[in-house]
Design goal:
Blueprint (H helix, E strand, L loop, with lengths): L4 E3 L14 H5 L19 H7 L13 H7 L5 H16 L6 E7 L3 E7 L10 E7 L2 H20 L7 E12 L2 E9 L5 E7 L5 E12 L2 E12 L2 H18 L1 E2 L6 E3 L9 E4 L2 E4 L7 E3 L4 H12 L5 H18 L1
Parallel strand pairs: 1-2
Antiparallel strand pairs: 2-3, 3-4, 4-6, 5-6, 7-8, 7-12, 8-9, 10-11, 11-14, 12-13
């Protein structure tokens, strides 16, 4: 597969060549966000992960048990994530290899790779997002997320990034641990939504174009480039999220509430796309909300997702969610 361009975060070319091998492209590159399987470890700190991440596949001192813990849950190195993304891109392309593979973002559950094939082919889009699980714990979560997103997409296809396929890679992908890769439709011109505290005070939802890191400490986020949502956009986000939650809610088994999907805005579960909110991820499991009606349950669930916002913008989101329920009834 000659001529593939390989990029890391911020579209910085890795490997120094458009025909770089995986090995040369990944050398000394590492994931800046700690993986899901290591989060409960008492020795995990941002500083410890910064020391460990570039050396996961080397014989190093155990760093208070972190190295052995990382190996026990199959934490992927940057190179292994890139290999998995490239392997699935080749299979997904069905003979038309990707022209570009870009490590666009990463989280605790998955690293997200933008695979471009140059042009649409039959029913397959020209650009897809490949979510590569970060470790074996994240692999199980990612499988659950994919199932949940498919269910949500059946109810509100306009509010969910479509899941195109799920791959289970066994064997040596992560030193014996399985890796899960989920392909989704790539949403052009979309920006991650995150609640951020602004310098002028107050916490609002913001469209994040890029996270800024310290060059001396690349795993440490110092700020963001982006724009804050205004009040009308907060209402629109609340309406979209409320409609999605209400459409997929089900009566709880005991009949006292509603089982609804859960979203974590701090984790980047929603993006701003085409003037509104779209879900690209969610929690793998649902939550039960004690409410008499599905409309009340949806508004409560939206409030829980936006709990970190300041009062003014929480109310704007809730007003949007409530108005969406009225218009749907």
């Amino acid at each position: 597969m000659d001529g593939i361009s390989l990029y890391g975060p911020d579209r910085l070319e890795v490997g120094g060549s458009t025909t770089a091998t995986v090995e040369s492209a990944a050398r000394r590159s590492f994931h800046g966000v700690a993986p899901l399987g290591l989060l409960p470890h008492p020795a995990l700190t941002p500083q410890a992960w910064e020391r460990l991440a570039p050396r996961l596949d080397e014989a190093v001192s155990d760093l208070d048990g972190l190295v052995s813990a990382a190996r026990s849950v199959g934490v992927l190195t940057f190179e292994e994530s890139l290999r998995a993304a490239r392997h699935v891109a080749e299979e997904y392309g069905a003979g038309r290899g990707p022209t570009e593979l870009w490590g666009a973002k990463e989280g605790h559950v998955a690293s997200v790779w933008r695979a471009s094939f140059g042009h649409d082919h039959e029913a397959a889009p020209a650009v897809v997002a490949l979510n590569v699980s970060r470790d074996s714990v994240a692999a199980e979560e990612l499988k659950s997320v994919a199932r949940r997103l498919r269910q949500l997409s059946q109810r509100c296809p306009d509010l969910v990034a479509e899941v195109l396929g799920v791959w289970h890679l066994e064997g040596d992908r992560a030193r014996g641990h399985s890796v899960v890769v989920v392909a989704q439709r790539w949403l052009d011109d979309s920006l991650e939504i995150n609640p951020l505290r602004l310098s002028e005070g107050g916490t609002r939802l913001c469209r994040v174009a890029r996270f800024l890191t310290d060059p001396a400490r690349p795993a440490h986020i110092e700020g963001v480039v982006g724009s804050a949502l205004d009040e009308l956009e907060h209402r629109r986000l609340g309406a979209d999220l409320g409609r999605l939650i209400a459409a997929s809610a089900e009566r709880s088994e005991d009949g006292t509430g509603w089982t609804v999907p859960s979203f974590v805005l701090e984790r980047g579960d929603l993006v701003w796309h085409a003037g509104g909110g779209v879900a690209v991820a969610c929690a793998g499991s649902s939550v039960t909300v004690p409410a008499a009606t599905v409309e009340e349950a949806a508004v409560q669930a939206v409030g829980a997702a936006c709990h970190s916002l300041d009062e003014r913008h929480v109310w704007a989101v809730l007003e949007g969610a409530a108005s969406a329920q009225v218009s749907q009834s």
